[in-house]
Sequence to fold (489 residues):
Amino acid sequence: MSGFVEQTGCFGGLFRKARRTRYPTHDTASTQKSGDISAVDTRVHHDEKCCYFNLTCDYSSCQESERWHLLEDPPSPTCSKAESDTEVPDQGILELVENTLNQLSPELRDISMKIHANPELMFEEKYAHDLLTDYISRQGFKVTKHYLGLATAWRAEYQHGKGGRVVGINSEMDALAGMGHACGHNLIAISGVAVAIAVKATMEACNIPGKVILLGTPAEESGGGKVTLIKRGGYKEMDVCLMCHPAPGRPHSISVASTLAMQQIEVEFFGRTAHAGAAPWEGTNALDAAFIAYSSISVLRQQMKPDCRVHGIVLGRNWSANVIPDYSKMIWIARAPTFADLAPLVERVKNCLHASALATSCKVDLNVGPAYYELNQNEVLGQAFVDILRDRYGMPQTNVASSASTDFGNVTFEIPALHPVYAIPTEPQGGNHTPAFAKAAATLEAHRATMTVSNGLALTALRVLSDPLFFHQVKAAFSKSQLANNRVS
Ligand SMILES: [Zn+2]
Ligand SMILES: [Zn+2]
Fold:
């Protein structure tokens, strides 16, 4: 790979071969004082190749003995020697990005905690929308609120010079019912802001032409906000898009593994009420339909591949034990390693739902939501990010497979994109979508990890903007993946 750059600004070349450049020693004292940069543990280095269908693969985030101890001092970022064939950023760029984020860190921590204290469900992220757009507009970005007809979506844009490439970044904002920010989207929200501001500062200082677009993307947990934004052209202008997500894991580790494709199916059963004791034969039992559907799908699970998932809930209204229920609703989610694998599974789930309606003489109404694709992680962006996080910050890569899903998967099939997952300290059995994870997402250690990962994303974005050969390789990897996934004719 070449360190050539299209233009030169205040630094002659932004990325160089590691054999020519050693990482500078990080100023540990000032870092610890500011509390901004997450220190890292260089003792563990896992590079496991994990894939679905590999039943020997460890799907747990880490062993209990490897868990992060909240009271341990974070190890310092090291000047670990970069591997010989990796490209490393210029020291000036590193310091510019890190200093920018060091300065921002207390404000971003404040924003993160405010969002954490005001959790909002999908498409209702009004508080986060207003807080984030106010802040980013004060940082010199051109802001569009309520972007593309979505009340809580937003866009912040900064253009430097003329032409150049366009880097996209995403900030998620939504929480989960009853447990707040149990997926840590408060951290994702500030990471997007951090990356955008660090990239802007470097574009200005180094005279790098191009554009950075930060999208505030609502409704990731459900509702597919990014799917709507894709349909409405929200990603059209971007050359690449980056974001990150917290999860449990080995201390100070990152992963650029994939996730499962996902489809939500809402089903309503309509029956007729009757007195459950006096005249049950006059009723049509919608709750029975839900129970039969639940049983049928539970039986279906035995015939599913082990890397697929189907899970759901039952909802009702005006239910009493002495009335035959005339209405029930179920929300099902089916997941499979790829979108292609998902389609036949969804058909089998639908068959179970129709069959239960038939068995109970209920009317049935199916509403199939937007599909979330699996993550098609861009391998060139991924390698660049992994190299930086390993060599500069000592954060090892663990390719632990995740059977979760994200609407960012759809973005990764539109344009070259990257969605690394990074570890934050969690309690045993306190992973995403538990109250314990909501607590973890508020810790200072989680904030530090977020800021470190944001450094890596900003440096990856700057490489896209400044290194044409690198961008060519990113695009080539994307085209190759599209062909492999039959996404192009
Ligand atoms: Zn999430
Ligand atoms: Zn989640």
In short: The domain at 91-259+374-487 is CATH 3.40.630.10 (Aminopeptidase). The pocket of zinc ion (ligand 1) is lined by residues 183, 185, 220, 245 (CB under 6 Å). The radius of gyration is 24 Å.
